[in-house]
Amino acid sequence: MYLIKANDGLSSECISCYRDVARARDEEIETLITADLQQCAIDDDRLFAYLVPYVFQKLDVEAGASASVFNVVCSHIDARQIMQLIGEIVRENVTLFRKDSFAQIVAASLDWPTTAQWAFWHLVHAEGIPGEWLIQLLPKLKSSQHAEAAANVLLMLKRADRDPNMNMLRALFSRTPSAEDTFTIDCIKILIEDPSTCKRVSDNVGNLLKKQMAAGDLHMGGGTKGASKKSPQKLSMEQVLAHLEQFTQLCLMKEKKSAEQIFSNATVLEAFSEAEKNDKVAPLRSKFAQLFAVVNILRDESRDKEQSSRTLRGNRGSSASTSVSKANRHKDEDKDEDHVTKKKARRVITVGSSSSSSSEDSE
């Protein structure tokens, strides 16, 4: 591998020799890359650091899709080498990850030692991987067992441009509700920090609840009759309500008031109004009575604010019209006073003129 890199500038076909070696040994090229990098890391860490960027430049398809290659790299790379590799990423010389294989590599990394996961997530953040690449993995993450990955997913969502589409919300709500696992709650809280995304999240939550009621997907484990046990169960309304109730318990009455905005959203309020009228949802209303009570309180507060704002606008309008009418009256009074003053002035002028003419006649 070193000789191929050293002579790479002489021929564009040098890397094909490496593939020929793998073929001659009847090995997958990913297996050969892994073995060679492992040996380099043991024999000469400088040679290892020298070859890693080249591997991802010239064998990007094979290396970028191989969990074993990433395992070797992240298990042996040190802080200085991470900085150098991140520099190659920033300068657009190297691309490590591929969308079609990223989730599988993350799933494999869950069993790596903490130090290897630490290095792996540094590289993930360096490439600015979007959260949507992890959607299929979100339901499988358990924050108690996969703390390193769960923490870094939260950082990904917090740092990246948040685009909370319905697929991401479905994946988050599909996680098993648990009082000890707040990962779903934390993700939703991050997604609604921006006011513009808060409305999109709220609309999606309301529409999801409406669709579940319309389709009859109400209870956990209540899949279609005859469905295979291995087939994934549909996301139920019970799961969504369980997460939302935990969300109200942990996130309401905070400084930013972003959690209250979800339950003041028109689409969410419509969904809960439909749920209150739907007889089939009665068991869920009883189970999540606290959640429905919170929604009703926030609905009443929203109405009170709206009515008070209308009253305030009305008072402002009436006071403005009153001010205008008063101003008009003052103008009319001023005009009358000016008219009277002018009349008096004309009289004085007339009297003065007549008296002066009388004196001239007498003379």
Explain this structure to me?
It is a single chain. The chain has 363 residues and is an all-alpha fold. The protein folds into two domains: 1-98 and 113-119; 130-221 and 234-354, no CATH class. It has helices at residues 2-6, 14-24, 29-43, 45-58, 60-64, 67-76, 79-90, 99-109, 114-127, 147-159, 166-173, 183-191, 195-215, 237-251, 258-263, 266-277, 282-287, 289-362.
Determine the strand fraction and express it as a percent band.
Answer: under 5%
Helix content: over 70%
Low-confidence stretches: 223-231, 342-363
Rg, nearest Å = 37 Å
Q: Tell me the structural class.
A: mainly alpha
Distance between the termini: 135 Å
Shape: elongated
Oligomeric form: single chain
Summed up, the domain count is 2
Integer average pLDDT? 84
Order of helices and strands: HHHHHHHHHHHHHHHHHH
Biggest sheet character: none
Number of strands: 0
Number of helices: 18
